[in-house]
Write a structure and sequence with these properties.
208 residues, five-stranded antiparallel β-sheet, single chain, alpha+beta, 5 helices
């Protein structure tokens, strides 16, 4: 009986290891789909309105997706892009709102914009001489803080979307040229359990 229960427990954990990542991924995608789908105010649309089709599930998601694509397409036009820039500058001058807008805009620019910030993975020596953390260079010059010869390095937390910014001397940072930025982020966020594929023949990264 004891052997049977032990085997049953092992099968349970094996099944959990297979289904948990799939289930969490599916729930995350479902949450994103529902959140985007509910952006449109369905309750404001009358029953006899020609737009009543928006009340159906999935229509809101498709419309938001189309709107994002259209805005992206229009922003490639010189004139339209200048109008978007003017609108953005107006928001940045609005009290209180400018802090929210500029912060969110900078975060999106850092991940998917033309000025990507998290594409320089490094090892940074912060807490101890022989202790290194995975991070990303976000600023190569922080002299405006009165720190000459320092870098700003963002260190993400494991199993979270948060992180910390450290101002460290350049000699305490080593560039990770043997792995991609995506693999470095995955390694840091996963708590170091993700396997890293070496893309270069050398194992020890050079100093920045």
């Amino acid at each position: 009986m004891k052997k049977f229960l032990s085997r049953l427990l092992r099968y349970f954990f094996q099944g959990l290891l297979i289904l948990a990542p799939i289930g969490i991924t599916a729930l995350t995608l479902y949450w994103a789909f529902v959140t985007i789908d509910n952006i449109l105010p369905r309750e404001l649309i009358p029953v006899d309105s020609p737009l009543k089709f928006i009340k159906y599930k999935g229509v809101g998601f498709v419309l938001v997706l189309i709107m994002v694509l259209v805005v992206g397409y229009l922003s490639s036009s010189f004139i339209i892009s200048r109008l978007f820039d003017m609108f953005g500058h107006m928001i940045e001058r609005t009290p209180f709102i400018k802090y929210i807008y500029s912060s969110v805009k900078d975060v999106f620019d850092a991940f998917v914009g033309e000025k990507k910030k998290f594409d320089h993975p490094v090892l940074v020596n912060v807490y101890g001489e022989d202790v290194w953390e995975m991070g990303f260079i976000t600023q190569t010059d922080v002299s405006n803080f009165g720190l000459e010869g320092y870098l700003a390095v963002y260190v993400p937390h494991a199993y979270a979307i948060t992180g910390k910014v450290f101002m460290v001397k350049k000699e305490k940072v080593r560039a990770l040229e043997n792995i991609s930025a995506g693999e470095a982020m995955k390694f840091a966020v996963s708590g170091g359990v993700t396997t890293i594929t070496d893309h270069h023949p050398h194992d020890i990264p050079e100093k920045v």
